[in-house]
């Protein structure tokens, strides 16, 4: 693979992440929540396996929120007018974020609560 092309795609990805952080409050919230979880993990003391799970959940959550934001943008571009399918597409993407967030919260509680109480 062309090396310049490979690094250019990294730059595009970084630009996308920066744009999302600048424009989307939800993404900023996820980064702040991730920071809070990492600090809590450091103060609590997690095992190697627990850190792997936490990193996977944080990465998955932020990645999913980025995909949701991208889908919102694409829907707005394709269907600026009201359309039931456009609404469903956005609602389903938001549902995917909610499912992963709920699962992450439950796993987080299962990891942290036994260490605190
Ligand atoms: N083009 C559309 N056609 C039909 N329904 C829509 C459309 N755009 C948005 N909606 C409905 O409004 C909801 C909120 O849309 P959207 O997430 O774009 O707005 P928002 O709350 O301002 O989001 P954000 O603040 O993240 O930009 C969607 O989940 C969907 O139900």
Polypeptide structure, described:
This protein is mainly alpha-helical. The protein has one domain (25-116): Helix Hairpins. It contains 4 helices and no strands. The longest helix is centred in the last third of the chain and has 33 residues, at 84-116. It is globular. The site of adenosine-5'-triphosphate has 9 residues, from helix 4. Keywords: ATP-binding, Cell membrane, Kinase, Lipid biosynthesis, Lipid metabolism, Magnesium, Membrane, Metal-binding, Nucleotide-binding, Phospholipid biosynthesis, Phospholipid metabolism, Transferase, Transmembrane, Transmembrane helix.
Keywords:
117 residues; Helix Hairpins; 90% helix; globular
CATH class: Mainly Alpha
Order of helices and strands: HHHH
Taking pLDDT < 50 over at least 5 consecutive residues as the criterion, the unreliable ranges are none
Shape: globular
Radius of gyration: 17 Å
The number of domains: 1
Number of helices: 4
Q: Which range best describes the helical content: under 10%, 10-25%, 25-40%, 40-55%, 55-70% or over 70%?
A: over 70%
Keywords: ATP-binding, Cell membrane, Kinase, Lipid biosynthesis, Lipid metabolism, Magnesium, Membrane, Metal-binding, Nucleotide-binding, Phospholipid biosynthesis, Phospholipid metabolism, Transferase, Transmembrane, Transmembrane helix
Protein name: UDP kinase
Binding site for substrate: 5, 65
Binding site for a divalent metal cation: 24, 72
């Amino acid at each position: 693979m062309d090396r310049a092309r490979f690094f250019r795609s990294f730059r595009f990805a970084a630009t996308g992440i920066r744009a999302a952080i600048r424009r989307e409050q939800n993404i900023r919230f996820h980064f702040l929540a991730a920071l809070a979880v990492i600090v809590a993990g450091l103060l609590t003391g997690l095992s190697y396996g627990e850190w792997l799970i936490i990193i996977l959940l944080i990465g998955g959550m932020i990645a999913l929120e980025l995909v949701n934001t991208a889908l919102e943008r694409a829907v707005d571009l394709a269907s600026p007018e009201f359309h039931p399918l456009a609404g469903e597409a956005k609602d389903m993407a938001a549902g995917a974020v909610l499912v992963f967030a709920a699962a992450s919260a439950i796993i987080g509680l299962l990891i942290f609560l036994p260490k605190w109480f």
